[in-house]
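User: Please work through this fold.
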Amino acid sequence: MRTKEQMMDLILGVAEHDDRIRAVYMNGSRTNPNAPTDLFQDYDIVYVVEETASFIADRTWPERFGEILFMQFPDEHPDYPSDKENSYGWLMIFTDGNRLDLTVMTIPRAKENVFEDTLCIILLDKDGILPAIPESSDETHRVKKPSAEQFAAICNEFWWCLNNVAKGLWRNEPTYAQDMLNKVVRDQLLSMLSFKAGILTDYSVSVGKSGKYLPRWISAEEWEAYLRTYSGTGIDEMWESVETMCGLFAKTARFVAEKSGYTYNEREEAGCLWYLRRVRDLPADSTEI
């Protein structure tokens, strides 16, 4: 596996010898001083160029970075919006295990983009075209304190959407119930746990994608409870996960409300829990709730 030094020498060497590339900057976990370092960290690189068309037309161009095992062209996906004239990317995993996420971006677009993510370091600027930027930090990724309205909306979304989970489980529709749990309800729980981490650190940290850094700030007991909210597709097992979710959310939301000076809707919680447990106890042949 090529070392970081070898990869960076290659990335900058390509840029230095290609007149179409006027500047280079990097963002992502490799520029985040608070991110752990391991062999799976990818290289998030932007080449600042005058035009993208010649790079897109040359399908063999990415091969100069190494033997490609497999790759993706995200801007070619028919269902995702793209602006190929101003930005185009390749996601590459090489046979040595390294991953490079490479984007070519026009000068006007890059001048805007370097300010959109504080995890950005300018590596090369041949013409001095890029603006001065602050030192790299994870500031734009940190947990933000919710307003009272946002807090109430997250609580309402969590408790309300559980009715869909309940009916999915009663109908023995585990895939529907799993979708509601993991695509809707879980997001609210993760937000609430993130707010707790924010409170404990004066909102100075990022919990990482999918809350992967949460164990740094919440208790081991809370983290274990959160892991138990992930379940298989057995109906009884899923009901237990729902109960765990409800308990963890309620406890965390009360903490966030108290520390933030907000009001927690106890009645909403009580109504939802009554409904959930009523549905869980309903015989399969019931005609009314």
